[in-house]
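Page 42, continued from yesterday. The earlier attempt failed because a stray header line got pasted into the input along with the sequence. Redoing it now with the clean sequence only.
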Amino acid sequence: MASSDTHHRSDRAHWLYFDDAHPGIHPGVGAEPSKQGQLHSADWSEPGTAGNQPAVGSHGQERTEELESALAELSDANESLKELNTVDALTGIKNRQYFDTIFEQEWRRATRQKYPLSLLLLDIDHFKRVNETFGHLAGDECLRIFARAAWDLLRRPADIVARYGSEEFVVLLPYVENDNAVMLAEQVRSAIADRTIKTTDEFITITCSVGVSTANPSEGDDRKDALAAADIALYEVKASGRNRVSNAGNLTVEPAVRENQTS
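This time it went through. Structure tokens are written below.
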């Protein structure tokens, strides 16, 4: 058993210091030594303990934060680039590539969930004449105002308006029945006809023609048929006077036709 004196000394605070006269580290007892180079025993720890591990430098932490910030900026830039690739540069609305992608997705979803999809195809009447009479800058302004007028009438996030051709636009209306689609088409047509477009030197009035179609997609149906029906309805308007809405109605696929498609 250790002596009481030894036990008493072990409870005292002790210091380690360098002795110039006697090289080596010597324990000291009692008052804190005043010599330079002194080391408190608390500065020493057993191997493998936290005190024996190197601390992470602030420089390394800063570099990590800088890298995370750079990656976040790169991700934001990629998202912005994707967004730019879906937008028509002139009008600021979605472009045909975006419409084609979303239309395919909506068609598949409507097939699974059994809801209607309506389409509007809109074309500015006599647009070539506008360009020839007032110039291409005036024509560009007409396209921008037309796009904005159509966009302003859409109230739901699911509705899509996109530039489909030079002076042609398309509107996709998920969950919209045919009669409501016709009503919206008439609202767009009327809004355009009632608007006067001011250019630098001229006031221009334009009109538009609209073709409407609605489909309740089923397995085996082709979304291109819905577009073709709206396009035929639009052609009929243009052939009979323009500035009107033509409705192709609800598209149906006869059972016999569907059987032939799936056989």
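Notes: DSSP finds eight helices and ten strands in the chain.
Reminder to self: strip header lines before submitting.
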